[in-house]
Design brief:
The complex is a heterodimer of chains A (302) and B (190). With 302 residues, chain A is an alpha/beta fold. Chain A is built from twelve helices and eight strands. In chain A, strands 2-1-3-4 form a four-stranded parallel β-sheet. A four-stranded parallel β-sheet of chain A has the order 6-5-7-8, with helices on both faces. In chain A, helix 6 links the parallel strand 5 and strand 6. The longest helix of chain A has 17 residues. Chain A is globular and about 55 Å long. The N and C termini of chain A lie far apart (41 Å). Chain B folds into two domains: 98 residues, Fumarate Reductase Iron-sulfur Protein, Chain B, domain 2, CATH 1.10.1060.10; 73 residues, no CATH class. Chain B is mostly helical and 190 residues long. The radius of gyration of chain B is 20 Å and the shape is globular. The chains are: A alpha/beta (302), B mainly alpha (190). Chains A and B meet through helix 2, helix 4, helix 7 and helix 8 of A and helix 6, helix 7, helix 8, helix 9 and helix 10 of B.
Chain lengths: 302, 190
Amino acid sequence: MAYLYFPGCSLKGTSRAYDESLRAVFEALGAPLIELEDWNCCGATTYMSIDERQAFALAARNLALAEGQNPSPANGAELIAPCSACYLVLLKTQKRLATDASLGQRISAALKEEQLCYRGRVRVRHPLDVLVHDIGLQEISRRVRHPLRGMRVACYYGCQIVRPYAPFDNLHRPTTLDDLARALGAEPVDWALRTYCCGGSLTGTLPEVGVRLNYLLLKEAQRRGADCIITVCPLCQFNLEAYQDQIRRRYRDLSSMPVLYFTQLMGLAMGLPPKSLGMQRLMIPLIQPVGAAEKGGIHERA
Amino acid sequence: MATLERHIRYEAELDPSFAREIIASSGSPSLMECIQCGTCSSTCPLSSYMDYTPRRIIAMVREGFKQEVLRSSTIWLCASCYACTVECPKEIPITDIMYALKRYAVREGIHRWRFAIPLMARLFYETVRRNGRLTESWTVLKLYLQTYPLQIPAMVPMGWKLLFRGRFPLLPERIRGRLGLQRVLRAAKE
């Protein structure tokens, strides 16, 4: 099965490690990703605050491109969107186009300006959904070379992959990421903030608010004894990791907490070279798995 | 003598068409069915930082407190996490109402001076329309020049860390079909 891949803007910049680790993991599992040609920004939560119809046109252009570049035209295109904001905007656009005929006509007319057409034959997928439901946890645990035994992981889903639609997991208590962590041999910690919002861009626009939200998340993960947090969204990872210095300066009771993309942790467990997973791009390195590899896959708690 | 500030509103000052406009723009007739239970305010991770909680904003929209709602920090603090939307017992899409209010405020040019969130929205909008993609690091730098120039030195360590780790692209990302995209967006403009 070949998947089309919509990286989104963050994965070309601050979240390059997500892009690298995602490609590496899918490659290793025999499902290479084909990047969508000339994709554009999804509009995130921002474009919709200025002009809603333009926001839908922006997202619809990507859907139309995916339909045109479908590697298996017999079936609908499967489009993987790893960023939670991209994932939700694409889904939301599909829902609105399917239910609002006059909007659909306006968007179709707009897309004609670029000789594009979207007929609704794209399935938007999050890589977590694909990994757990298409490839399967059994296959993933079969590929594990260095089980992350003893490692306690706080699985952080964030908001937009489960809300408002929750296409592949439970809205209130999602489990897919915890199941995946377990398949890698790790021990997911039970924590209540798994779908709590990180504040998105508020860390930049209103630091006193954004920084506090991320403090609450880090503090709770620490209180539950997590060795690291894994995320499925570039913005969550950025907020929790890049702002950690500032957060820890303001709130002294916090110790340093590595924050990884879930695909990085998968790649480490599967024995892929750390560099191919962008591990060198992390600001707070995860030291344990290297030790785990040396000790024959046994991860020891410090 | 200090001037007295009036905190009451007369019905004649309210805008009865405001609720209708917001319902149309957000596609949420259920707005009028709000029972004021406050579930939205209690699930919202940001309500304690807002000047009016989401429950109050809904009540104020319904009654026509247009100026207060559009000037509130609430509509811009909403980070679109949809917690309120999925919990609302009357299934009111509160997040979409917040979007409609943001658009209304932008259209009317109402926001506080140098308030960073709408400025960020504007920068984001213009960059994507021009380049087809966003380069976060550059957009945030531009935002800080406009809003918190004195904070830039404090952000330098993070900037270096990003740069050294290849996470701060030096050239902004652009798509090939920029002109085509601009035509599409012009045709879709509200």
